[in-house]
Amino acid sequence: MISEDIRRQYTVTIGIECHVQLKTKTKLFSGADNDAREAAPNTLVNHIDFGLPGALPVLNEKAVELASRAAFALGTEPQRFSKFDRKHYFYPDLPLGYQITQFYDPIIKDGEVTFTLDGEPKTVRIHEAHIEADAGKSTHPAGTDYSLVDLNRAGTPLLEVVSEADIHSPAEAKGYARELYLRMRYADVSDANLYYGNMRFDVNVSVSKTSELGKRTETKNLNSFRSVERAAEYEVERQIGLLEQGERIVQETRGWDDAGQKTFSQRSKEDSYEYRYMPDPDLPPVVLSDEYVADVAAAMPELPDAYRTKFSAMGLDAKTVEDVIADPSAAKLVGMVYDDAGPDTAKRVAFWLLRPQEDDETAAHEVEPTEVDTASQVKNLIALSHMVAENKLSSTAAKEVLDSMLKTGESPEAIAETKNLLQVSDEGAIAEIVAAVLAENPKAAGDVQNGEMKAIGFLVGQVMKQSQGKANPALATKLIKKQLGI
Ligand code: MN
Questions:
Q1: Rounded to the nearest whole angstrom, what is the distance from the C-alpha of residue 127 to the centroid of ligand 1?
Q2: 365, pLDDT greater than 70
Q3: What is the model's pTM?
Q4: CA of 391 to the centre of ligand 1 (A)
Q5: How far is the CA of 87 from the centre of ligand 1 (A)?
Q6: 417 has a pLDDT exceeding 60
Q7: Is residue 468 very low, low, confident or very high in pLDDT (cuts 50, 70, 90)?
Q8: How far apart are the CA of 342 and the centre of ligand 1, in A?
Q9: What is the pLDDT of residues 35-52, one digit of tens each?
Q10: How far apart are the CA of 108 and the centre of ligand 1, in A?
């Protein structure tokens, strides 16, 4: 461990590159299916992905649309002119011998991502983002002298988002990764499923005691926010440790060992000239009209910041706001309830839909998708909230109604009725029960009359019990006081 004193002498500089898998139906340049998740190796491949001689790529228009949406999610607009280049390297899972990417004229330049860390806003500028085709996957079976190549992922459309080196701590690196993830999800650019590697982070870290930047290392293919933070932390400690011993940092690509929670050296870093970038003559430039860009802008869904504003206005604290936002399907429902029924109703719904968030969030905690349409869900959530506000349902009963309501789309009234959960607010019926309870419990009744208000809780409990939990407790309290003449 490096002491705090020594660590404070160094400036940490971090830049992050993130490959975001675009949610297209087919690949970037071929008609092969883009969903390689559970497919048998080499079944989602055609002549273009194999790189057969004479096969010509055709750009997938949907990928351009999704990248254009990403531009708005990053606080900018897509470039009206962008084009594709060839990045050459030789590896068995790259049949063409080059990756098709955008080197000279990317579709996104500039932009920024702002998020809150420890209550303070932090802005990271975006350098650029480019569209590119993924390579295939190589595996090296242990104990054999051969490698296996699966080209299902070859040609999968990616958007590589490159940040400026504006990040200065591992915590900021994690905050940026999380915010980028949320924006890509809310903009509906990517399924952003971290488990399936839909977003992979490369973290560039350097440390320096002077105003000059130190030599950096790049730790590649991190697929969780926690590993982004831990890998950055590990590199900061490792690099400062080396420098303090008078050693030098080697510019290199490193991997992340999740089990050992450490980075390890993979290869020395290529300089960009080694890739022999050149414009791809098989693909025309991408030219976007102002009308096209305006249409994309008009179709943009609400982004996390819009929800933050709404949810803060509902009186939710910052932590709770982030917990709701971490689940886009829940946030969308709460946002719609807010628009239709106002802050109080929306706040109640927010707490119902809230799932405990772990440090690293995946799709696991989300409101389960159902066949029920969103408009019905919103209508039912508002009705349920009103039932609680009007004391027709206890909050415990409301939770029971909620689960089956979200699954089936049945109205909360119908479910509460079937499950026999409706609270009795009929004064006459409860007054009878109250009279009986007071007669059976003269001591407690007397205590209450003598000003020992603790005892009233016991009496209300008895009323609840005799009514099988259906009496409205506020009404029961009122009637007990009335009958005891206090
Ligand atoms: Mn890349």
A1: 14
A2: no
A3: 0.85
A4: 57
A5: 10
A6: yes
A7: confident
A8: 45
A9: 988 899 999 999 999 999
A10: 14
Which tokens belong to 169?
């701590």
276 C-alpha to ligand 1 centroid (Å): 15
The pLDDT mean for the chain works out to 92
Are 114 and 123 contacting, i.e. CB atoms less than 8 angstroms apart? yes
